[in-house]
Fold this sequence. Notes:
2 domains, about 55% helix, globular, oxidoreductase activity, Prok_molybdopt-oxidoreductase, Dissimilatory membrane-bound nitrate reductase
Amino acid sequence: VEPVTLGIYTAPTVLTYPKVRKPLLKLWRDLRKIHSNPVDAWAAIVEDPVHTKSYKEARGMGGFVRSSWDEVNEIIASSNVYTIKEHGPDRIVGFSPIPAMSMVSYAASSRYLSLIGGVCMSFYDWYCDLPPASTNGLGRT
Length: 141
């Protein structure tokens, strides 16, 4: 096992590099050679039923492989640009389980989503709706 170091933490289970599901990464790399525009490469993946099926069928099977930060950032950016172009910015949704427990990550992700017109959601969006809606769903007690 290769030792991995992240700040003061050293453990074989701590990842300091991104991993991507192998079938998706292979598609991405193959199509990126053909398309100079990364958004076009992403479109070639999601608009082709055979490509889409190949990487979606691999979900839940593991098979993650190492990638680079530049590569995964390009995949994420391309998928976000494609989604916004095709379906609108409100189709990009970020979720934080409990914002008060991870202020830095919540602030960074909510800022990003706000800049692109995405939607910020948290555990509280669900939890806080329970009391007012409970009589509608559960009946009066």
